[in-house]
Fold this sequence. Notes:
Elements lengths: L2 H6 L5 E5 L4 H13 L5 E6 L4 H13 L5 H7 L3 H8 E5 L12 H10 L2 E4 L10 H20 L6 E5 L11 E2 L18 H17 L4 H18 L5 H16 L5 E6 L1 E3 L15 H10 L6 E2 L8 E3 H15 L5 E6 L9 H14 L17 E2 L2 H25 L5 H25 L4 E2 L2 H9 L4 H4 L11 H16 L2
Helix pairs in contact: 2-12, 7-10, 8-9, 9-10, 13-18, 14-15
Amino acid sequence: MDVQYVLETLKHKSILITGSTGFLAKIFVEKVLRVQPDVKQLYLLVRAEDNVGAAHRFQTEVIGKDLFRVLREKQGKSFDSFVSGKVTPFAGNICYENLGVNDSSLREELWREVQIVINVAATTAFDERYDVALDINTTGAKRVLEFAKKCPKLEMLLQVSTAYVNGVKPEVITEKTLQLGEALNGRPGLDIETELKVVEERLKEIRAKGVTGKEERILMKQLGMKRSRMFGWPNTYVFTKALGEMMLGQLRENLPLVILRPTIITSTYREPFPGWMEGTRTIDAVMAVYASGKLSCFLGDRNLTADLIPGDMVVNSMLVSMAAHLNRTADFPYHIGSSVRHQVQYSLIEKCSIRYFTAHPQIGSDGKPIIPREVPVFADMESFRRYMAIRYKLPLQGLGLLNTICCQYFDRLYTRLTRQFNYVMRLVDIYEPYVFFRGRFDDWNAERLRLMVKGSSEEKEKLSFDPKEIDWESYFMNVHIPGVVRYVF
Length: 489
């Protein structure tokens, strides 16, 4: 199939998109409107009280973003009328039956018109409350599937997942479907209905004790991490996303299903312009702290591979996979990443960060430039814990003793520092599996998908998701870090 064929598959199509105010969905919406203005309708599910609220969120959180400036320039004065004619934002929630669409006429319209359903909605917090994560990432995916099955014109369901549903094994991880009830560590007894009952019973038990909302939230987060690790997943996010995949595979019947598993998504590489970003991904959060001069140390192996993929490349893979699987009943997972095809080490990211923020220092609250400095990097947990004990824990214990001697005079300071120390150690516990992750995500299915796209280099560039095209050093220095500074800092 050539590039034009892929774009033609979008022509006169009605597409339902969940998670539409999120980073990836926004890039998808912009791309479709720009490359295929003859798309029939994009129905965007937005969490809001009503359709007025949904329209407001769409205007401020989607169309109002700088991401759409190229499309604005292209459409000129007709931009607003063009968008209003092609996009229907509506209030809904995948946590409810029929996606929470209360307007019966709109619900009937969706069932009657929608041909493609794209589920991007998710809660991505690693340690989300277990009840919330199950409701959105697992049973939410089931509700999207159930809604899709009510659309007689439906041609496919595209589920955006994450490559890390495969766990953090130190090996080449293949693109295979996850089987219902199959735990990563081989432990028997993994059952989605059982997990839902565990949540229900735990909530009853907690609430019977009359705990505060904050205490309930902490206990439910702890439950999610405990159940995830019991079956071999490192955190609640990837565990519940894996369960969602299992549920879709079990219940889809003959419905064409594509599961897209991106790795760590970064700023746009090429379209609609380089460097657009929103929200902080893992590496960007570290960059932000480093640029502010507040990073005292870093945990991780500089020589390990960072599996990154720009957001516009993920969207291109969505478009190509849609064209390849319309009305085809095959169940395909695709890894969209770079760790096998074109690796980048954390050492390069570190080097680029130092170079960039030395040349373009951030300005501190005192009005002076913050000159970056090299920080100690710990390549194993033992040395990190030793550092934290000597640098922070022992002085904190000394402060605690002094606080007791001085009749709680330093109580507020001691409490604040203790809370900060515990917070850092909790973050380390959550991210440890990833900072030492030595696996690679095989992308043979994705490579076959890339090879299906024919045409000249210039034409294929419009739908490229090949990480081999990326000069990583140039990307970080000239695209990603400047983009993070502009759109995140």
